[in-house]
Design goal:
Blueprint: H1 2-36, H2 53-63, H3 67-106, H4 110-113, H5 118-131, H6 137-150, H7 159-167, H8 172-178, H9 183-200
Helix pairs in contact: 3-5, 6-7, 6-9, 7-8, 8-9
């Protein structure tokens, strides 16, 4: 009888010990699941692999079957194209404007000899550069003189009309011909103005 009681007592202790171990193991599992340790597959902690901006971009690309990538690339190309063109226009305007300043400084009597002022030539040229940044200062001066010489006889020949022809890629001779002069008349008018400008630079 005593042996039976001892055996029952031992079995009871074993059951109590096993129950206690099970409770401890369960508590540790809950602690990890509630944030007590890094999730599986990410032993270093932090967000799981692929989470963040890069993952968002790649996900948007995948969901749109590549349309997102194409849209970003197209927008960038278009922006860069406009930006590059604008910078080039600004660079040409600044470069040509500086050359005009140099020429007016090197020939201080030129403007007066052409019956105008340096400030009027400078401001008029800078305004013309906004429309045609490739316009040279000599072309602008020639346009003003041609308009002064020919405009009384032919009202169609104005500084603006000549500058518009140059902006369209025409030469001064072609522009004058399109405005009603014969080729010989255009040639003679150009020759006269070139001589006027050359003489003015000597003053």
């Amino acid at each position: 009888m005593q042996n039976l009681l001892k055996m029952i007592a031992r079995l009871g202790l074993v059951f109590l010990l096993m129950a206690g171990l099970q409770v401890m193991a369960s508590a540790q599992g809950r602690g990890r699941g509630a944030g007590g340790g890094p999730p599986a597959g990410n032993p270093g902690g932090g967000p799981p692999s692929g989470v963040g901006v890069d993952r968002g971009i790649s996900t948007s690309s995948g969901r749109s079957n590549g349309r997102a990538d194409t849209g970003r690339g197209t927008a960038s190309d278009r922006s860069n194209g406009r930006s590059d063109a604008g910078l080039e226009r600004a660079r040409l305007q600044q470069q040509n404007s500086q050359q005009a300043d140099n020429e007016l400084r090197d020939h201080p009597g030129m403007a007066a000899s052409l019956h105008t002022t340096a400030n009027d030539l400078r401001s008029g040229y800078q305004a013309a550069l906004v429309t045609n940044p490739n316009l040279k200062f000599g072309q602008y001066v020639a346009a003003t003189r041609l308009a002064a010489n020919l405009g009384r006889r032919d009202p169609n020949i104005t500084t603006s009309a000549i500058l518009a022809g140059l902006a369209a890629g025409k030469s001064i001779g072609q522009t004058l011909h399109n405005l009603g002069l014969s080729k010989q008349e255009a040639k003679n008018a150009q020759k006269q103005v070139d001589q006027e400008i050359k003489d003015a630079k000597r003053h």
